[in-house]
Amino acid sequence: MNIYKLLQLNRKIKSHRIKFLGLYLLHKFNQRYLAVNIDPVMACNLRCKMCYFTDADYVKTLKGQFKEDELNQVAKTIFKRALKLQIGCGTEPTLYKDLVKVVELGKAYNVPYISITTNANLLDEEKIEALLKAGLNEFTISLHGVHKESYENFMQKASYEKFHNAFKAFEKLKKQYDFKVRINYTFNKDNFYELADFFKHFNGESFDILQIRPIQKIGNTEYNDFDLDSIRAEYPQLIKDIRTQCKENHITLLAPNTIPKDQSTNASSLIFDYTFCYVSPQKFWKDGFDWNNESFNVYSQKIGWGKLLWSNIFKSEKELKSLSNRLNYEVEFN
Q1: Where's the Radical SAM core domain (predicted)?
Q2: What is the largest CA-CA distance in the chain?
Q3: Residue 327 domain flag
């Protein structure tokens, strides 16, 4: 399954009514439509300045990791409805000692696409290969600086050398395994211009997708300059240049065409809240879900989930506007 083709299809289908009809039918006939995002351990090895892990008070609230029996129950409860399994949503999954088992469970329940989001500092060739053998489809790698100085400044406790060693391993293993590597680059006005040097530091043979996204406020972070007005006018040209370089290197580009001026929600993201399922030792999908004792079908029927999906077909876009900020990424296929 090509998850990026689905992303492009979602953007091309303009009618939210058609989308919610599709979700309703998938739900009613027990098909897969959820993007299950799981944090198996509530910790991180880095302290990135644009991340809430630099908020000491918030970090104190993050506790726990899944035990083996809990992990098995999570898989039993929700994996059959997962179209995609994303391991690592707000914490660092490579700290979890049973990470390979999470992937194996995903494959055991026939989840079509399994991805890990990580800062890659704890990955080496052996660990990467073990995850690939377990059935992993994609590594999504967080990046906050192209140059060593800015990388280690924004991603504190990280090693630029260890990061690039992981990409050397990706390049080598790509010759043996079929998997994707996606780079998520979060930019602010202080690390924006070095994007022009991206392909001077990263070999196009080591990754497949480049996502470029503006900084967002996600808590009381150490870096808190969210004003992008000083680079707004220059953004389109830089993205145009990167798009050209991506095409030359056969890289898929995910990037908004312009920097949004507000937190308005686009039509493509209206269904996000109805497909997103977050799971961690502290939370499971919706509040009140007794996932140890209730099935997904029983609980969704209890809260009228199917009826809600059906009713959304007849609501206006204005009624459906999400409070979350999700950008309308333009997907470039090369």
Answers
A1: 28-245
A2: 54
A3: no
User: Could you tell me whether strands 138-143 and 180-187 are parallel, antiparallel, or unpaired per DSSP bridges?
Assistant: parallel
**What digits encode the pLDDT tens for the residues 304-319?**
999 999 999 999 988 8
At residue 285, φ and ψ (nearest 5 deg) are 55, -100
CATH number at residue 26: 3.20.20.70
Distance of CA 20 to the CA centre of its chain: 22
Residue 66 lies in a domain: yes
68-78 vs 99-108: helix crossing angle, rounded to 10 = 30
pLDDT at 13: 86
How many domains is the chain built from?
Answer: 1
Is residue 86, in this structure, part of any structural domain at all? yes
315: in domain: yes
Residues 8-32: tens digit of each pLDDT = 787 788 899 999 999 999 999 999 9
Give the torsion sign (CA, 45, 221, 228, 260): positive
- Alpha helices for the chain (secondary structure H): 3-12, 16-28, 56-59, 68-78, 99-108, 125-134, 148-154, 160-173, 198-201, 229-232, 235-248, 272-275, 296-302, 305-312, 317-320
